[in-house]
Amino acid sequence: MSNNSIKPDRNLAMEMVRVTEAAAISAARYMGTGDKEAGDQAAVDAMRAVLDTVDIRGTVVIGEGEKDEAPMLYNGEQVGSGQGAEVDVAVDPVEGTNLLALGRPNSIAVMAMAEKGSMWNPGDSFYMNKLVVDRRAKDVIDITQSPTANLQAIARALERKVQDLTVFMLDKPRHRELMAEIRAAGARITLHTDGDVMGALMAAIPGTGVDVLMGIGGTPEGVISAVAVKALGGGMQGMRAPQLPEEIARLKENNVDLSEVLTLDKLINAEDGFFAATGITEGSFLEGVHFDRTQGVTTHSIVARALTGSVRYIKGIHQLKRPMDFANRDQVDKLGLENI
Fold first, then answer.
1. For the chain, which terminal residue's Cβ has fewer other Cβ atoms within 10 angstroms, N or C?
2. Structural element, H or E, at residue 229
3. Rounded distance, CA 114 to CA 17, Å?
């Protein structure tokens, strides 16, 4: 970091939750419409508008893609008010766009921040193998070992039987062998079509009904998950697991070591990190956005900070004067954002 830089000195997660709440409220109006692009765009517009009000000098490290394909929240974009700490920013305005479009559970709006230069850059890695547990088992996991060996070690750390463990996994063809081994070991599986940031959250927090996240998911989501897991005090390891022919070719061309273990400290190389997530559709862990004519719009969020270990669950009640069109910056500037 430069001599003129300022490290985060307050709980930015409490400001970030306004950003994820705005994204969730905007996206939730598209629940079940079948239009995942419109829902995602509404969340992006809202997230970008409210993010401008946060006193940070942020750089999007994990965003919606490259600038040519993503007009807002693209990788490398500068965000925030331009004052305050220099930070890396990772966003997923809608994790689970298909879940949102189909009205299925566990779609969330997600954001993470950490000191500038501390977030691992996935580069040409689009997929990674992930292993996530809560703090009681963080010292016993080893992603280079078999799933069976890890489940046995995790069970011992939790003082339970393997048969009592529940594994969160994405329901993808690439997981057929992993699924068979987990079942053969005796553990239970909860399958989800999308949303492994949510899975990492549930695995890192005791009492959610999920004990472990295993399997291959998106690398950008892995970096966001790492900030959440670090803030929650859990354990995580990853390894690159390329799935696409062009991804494999690029990594081979650059002599990338696919056997490298991506530890939690490698994925997020900072003592402090901030995480916020707000439910969009109803879920087993976070409630979705509720629109009520008398009570207002209610949201349910989790925020966490790594340095202090603080975790908060926030139930927001928003008395919106009128629907906010975040894509219309004139309206945003005129109405202000004090009611978000």
1. N
2. helix 219-232
3. 15
DSSP code at position 231: H
Q: Tell me, rounded to whole angstroms, the distance of Cα 236 from its chain centroid.
A: 14
Cβ atoms 188, 214 nearer than 8 A: no
Q: What are phi and psi of 210, to 5 degrees?
A: -120, 130
Mean pLDDT, each 10-residue run in order, the chain (340 residues): 53 89 96 95 95 94 75 90 93 96 96 95 94 97 98 98 98 97 98 95 95 97 96 97 94 94 96 95 94 85 94 90 58 48
Report the DSSP beta bridge partners of residue 168.
190, 213
Tell me which amino acid residue 273 is: G
Task: For the chain, state the CA radius of gyration.
Answer: 19
Q: Which helix (H) or strand (E) holds 97?
A: helix 97-102
Long-range CB contact pairs, 184-192, < 8 A, 24+: 184/148, 185/147, 185/148, 185/151, 185/152, 186/151, 186/161, 186/162, 187/151, 187/162, 187/163, 187/212, 188/163, 190/166, 192/106, 192/168
Could you give the 3-state DSSP secondary structure of residue 40? helix
**CA pair distance 234, 129, nearest whole angstrom:** 17
What count of other Cβ atoms lies within 10 Å of the Cβ of residue 147?
22
Residue 25 has phi, psi (to 5 degrees) of -60, -45
Residue 299: CB atoms within 10 A of its CB come to: 26
Q: Which residues of 33-68 are buried (b: 16+ CB within 10 A; e: fewer)?
A: eeebebbbbbbbbbbbbbbebbebbbbbbbbbeeee
Q: Contact 196/220 with Cβ under 8 angstroms? A: no
Closest C-alpha to 268, from 242, 240, 298, 306: 306
Residue of 11, 111, 13, 27 whose CA lies nearest to 62? 111
